[in-house]
Design goal:
Shape: elongated
Largest sheet: 6 strands, antiparallel
Radius of gyration: 15 Å
CATH superfamily: GroES chaperonin
Strand order of the largest sheet: 4-5-1-2-3-6
Helix content: under 10%
CATH topology: 10 Kd Chaperonin, Protein Cpn10, Chain O
CATH class: Mainly Beta
Distance between the termini: 22 Å
CATH architecture: Roll
C-alpha cells in the first residue's frame, strides 16, 4: 500500500479497494507547427503516473484480489473515468483499476 504524497504535501491520500490515484501528465501547449494553444483549447491527456494504489478488490471468498498495476506505472485511462481531486494546489485523479486501459512500458 502507498499513500499519494507529492512534494511536501501535508495530506496523504490512500485509495480503498481496487482504486488508484493518478497524477495526470501535463498537456502540450505548443502544436507541432509551433502554434501556442490557450488552456481552453488544450485537450487533457488520458495518461499519467500512478502515485498510490488500494489494497485490492474484496472477493466473494473474503480475500483481496491483487491489483495488476503498481505505484510508479505509467498508464492510459478512459477520459470519462476519473474523479478529479485537488489537494494542496495539485490535481489528482481517483479511478477504479478497471478504468485503466493499458500500462505504458
Amino acid at each position: 500500500m502507498a499513500t499519494a504524497t507529492k512534494k511536501k504535501s501535508k495530506v496523504a491520500l490512500q485509495p480503498l479497494g481496487d482504486r488508484v490515484v493518478v497524477a495526470r501528465d501535463e498537456s502540450l501547449d505548443i502544436t507541432a507547427g509551433g502554434i501556442v494553444l490557450p488552456d481552453s483549447a488544450q485537450d487533457k491527456p488520458s495518461r499519467g503516473t500512478i502515485i498510490a494504489v488500494g489494497n485490492g478488490k474484496l472477493l466473494d471468498d473474503g480475500t483481496r484480489g491483487e491489483l495488476q498495476v503498481k505505484k510508479g506505472d505509467r498508464v492510459l485511462f478512459t477520459s470519462y473515468a476519473p474523479e478529479t481531486i485537488n489537494l494542496d494546489d495539485e490535481e489528482y485523479l481517483l479511478m477504479s483499476e478497471g478504468d485503466i486501459l493499458a500500462v505504458i512500458e
